[in-house]
Structures are given as C-alpha cells and as structure tokens.
Fold this protein.
Amino acid sequence: MIVHLANTRGMANHGWLQSAHTFSFADYYNPERMHFGALRVINDDTIEKGKGFGRHPHRDMEIITIPMEGSLKHEDSEGNIGVIARGEVQVMSAGTGIFHSEFSDPQLTTKLLQIWVFPKLLNVKPRYDQKEYLLQERKDRFQLIVSPDGREQSLAINQDAFFSIAQVSKDSVLNYSPYLASNGAYLFIMSGSFEINGQVFHAKDGVGLESFKTISLKALNESCEILVMELPMLEP
C-alpha cells in the first residue's frame, strides 16, 4: 500500500487558483511522486469565479476532469465547446496535439479534480467527450465513469483504465474487485473518511495498491465519496 496523505501534497497558490498536487506538477517536484503506474497527475483545483486557463497545448495524454462544485467551460482547437458541472465528467484524448481553454463560471467558484493518464497508444487523433451521470446511481455502489471501451455507459479513454465513483453511507461497506487482474488501483477520497483494508484515511488522502484481489471500503461518517482509479502498473 502506497499512502499519500492530503497534507503531504504539493500546494500552489496563484491567487485565482488554489491547487493541490498529489504528483509532481508545474513548480512542485518530488522524485518519489512522479506517477503511479499509468496515473500521472491528480490536481485538486479551486478556481475563482470567471477565472481559468487560457488556450494552451497538450499532447499524448488522457485528461479526465471531474467537477465537485461550480462549473467549467471548455473550448478546444477541434471545435468542441462544453460546460461541465457536478455529476458530469469530461475526457480529452490529446493524441497528436490539441489546444484548449478552461474557465470557471462567472458567478461561481469551481472545485474540480483534473487527472492525467498516460495513453495506451501514442499519436492518436484528438478526441473530446463529456457525460452527465445520475448521482443517485453511485449511492452505496460503484458507478463506472471511465473505461477502455465505453462499457456500462462510461466514457472511453485510450488506456486499459477504469474509473469508478461511489457515495457510501455511514458504516456501509463496499468491496471493489478489478476489471483486469493485472491492474493496480489508486483511491482518492473526495470527501469524508474511509477505512480501507483496515486502515483509516480522510478527505483528499490517496492510497495506491500495485496489485489486489479485493479492496474493502467502509464509510466512517456521512457524505463519504471516493474515486477508484484502476489502471495498468506500467513504467512510461
């Protein structure tokens, strides 16, 4: 078990942007936190209303954005325009290269997770997609939001990765089993506290398991939400 407690993340204060980096990113560099298998970035961002990231490039990276509060407007060089809010998920395969911008709602501060995953194939055609998920369908069960093939109404990405979110009632227990036996898993607690395989963790803590058969999750209080990222333990 690899543990990254919330207060050990790299913190960045840009005024309009408060960001916590689980892995090395921008000015935060930690040689022991470069990636976890195919997982490269988890940025926990708070963006002031009306602020955001101007047009900038990406290449050969799978980017998943999960809003927790507020909303975010996306525009890119492929002609895609979309707004995502809580309950929605956005995926972008940067592939051969894409430029995009992201801005918070003019009236609301936005809180979100932005996650980068190394792709399975390089130099693919850039692709963008977004989807709204019913929050009640993740109540005390795992709701699959990302997969390699779009199964179970999830969004497809260019990697053998499976992302699931669950909202778990106090004292309830969920067991997570892998889609692919060769995958590891990284768990990020979005809110609340959980007992994971017998150890207690709190909001914004991260836990990585390089191999597993089953992960046992017990919610310790109300408003417990967790993101499970199952992905290949590759060395990029």
